[in-house]
Amino acid sequence: MKMKVAIKLLLGVCISLILSSCEEDTAPVPQAAMTVNKGQLEINESMIIHFTGSADQVVVYTGDDMHDYELREQSNTGFVVNKNLFTYSYATPGTYKVVCVASTYTDGATDLKRDTCSYTVTVIDDQTEIENISCPQIVYDEVFAEKLLNDEWLMRLPRKIKYNNQTASISLSQRLRFYIQSELTKVYINDKEFSSTAKYDLSAPVEVSVTSDYGTTRLHKLYTVNYPEFKSFTLAGATGTLIRNEFDYSTFVLEVVLPQGTDVSNLIPEFTTYSPDEKVYIGNVEQLSGTSAVDFTQEVHYRLVSTASGHPDMQAVSDVTVIITYQ
């Protein structure tokens, strides 16, 4: 009798252990669920996915090249989601099927369960934004324009530059380079398709039309102003020599050699500039050639301001320091 009871107890324990073991070897059922911030994206715009289901591991197939869920048996892979958040951007326009794979598994990986959900996103190439404009061949330098309001740009160019101890003149007929995120975006200059090898006349404002692959057109305008400088400068009958900065086109030194003992406390310079749109100041006081007396006993800094004709807000400013030596 006692033996029968012991056998029954032993069988009960075994059955309990077997059932417990079976329960441990069974993975919970996963739930694949996600939210996507947009159904239509632009190229290079972030797609943001929040995983809202339940799983031990979450993988997202973005649907583009090498990440297509339907081709997972052909070496296409997904991205493991960390902390239920995943961001991604597409470089090529198209329609993509985004697949979320939610997985659960036991500790010994004896049981694995999966659930999937999908979402379709459309990616368009609607890039009309210009990140930068440059003149790429100012002898050895690339000069960039400044982006202003209302899609207006200002290019500041030197009239001349110091190069290999020589002075090279810079033309206003220049090649242009446009920095735009999409290679499919088309640029037109004054209604003609842009060519990276052509030279464009920058002496007048340039109309720039940008058309995206999606078909949107955006208008920009490029103004060009030379850094102002003295064309001539005479002080007490002596002609000054303009010395250029090889690395900064907006700063100059003007050297004037005078006879020893010259009184420089109240001299009236005579000067010319290259354009009537170039004004000369000391501080905020405009200086007029042959009229404005200057005390040169201390270092004098001239501020030259050049503006685009009819557009006073389009400015290039230069600083000229006068250095007087004696012989």
TrEMBL record:
Q: Where is the signal peptide?
A: 1-21
Identify the domain of life: Bacteria
Q: What keywords would UniProt list here?
A: Signal
| This protein's name | DUF5017 domain-containing protein
Name its species. Jilunia laotingensis
